[in-house]
Amino acid sequence: MKQIEVQIMGQSYLLGCPDGGEPQLRDAVERVDAAMCKIRDAGKVKARDRIAVLASLNLAFDLAAQQAAAVAAPAALAATAPAPAPAEPGEADAKASQLIQKLDQALAGDGHLL
């Protein structure tokens, strides 16, 4: 593990970094710095620790929203995917007839569907 020096809101920090992880760490530092500077520049919060907490919450919320979208995306794609074509031309009609018969049997006391 090596140490790298970074700047967040104009203050230097010495961070431990695993081998090969420097690009990801620098990207994370850049995101945190941008989030904190945005809150500071809005002028409503002055204390560095409060700015850090608000920036952390904003970043965590964004990450949770991205994860929820990633989970929902495959389900949405599956719902809009076209149904597979039947192997033979009359196969869909045969399956529909079987389903209608099963429904008729289940609803025998209430009458037939068709």
Summarize the SSE layout with pairings:
Elements: E1 2-8, E2 11-17, H1 22-42, H2 48-80, H3 91-106
Antiparallel strand pairs: 1-2
Could you walk me through the main structural features you see in this protein, from its secondary elements to its overall organization?
The chain has 114 residues and is of the alpha+beta class. It has a single domain (2-82), classed as Cell division protein ZapA protomer, N-terminal domain (Double Stranded RNA Binding Domain), CATH 3.30.160. The protein contains three helices and two strands; from the N terminus they run E-E-H-H-H. The chain has helices spanning 22-42, 48-80, 91-106; strands spanning 2-8, 11-17. It has a two-stranded antiparallel sheet. Strand 1 and strand 2 form a beta hairpin. Helix 1 (22-42) crosses helix 2 (48-80). The radius of gyration is 29 Å and the shape is elongated. The termini are far apart. The model is unreliable at 110-114 (pLDDT under 50).
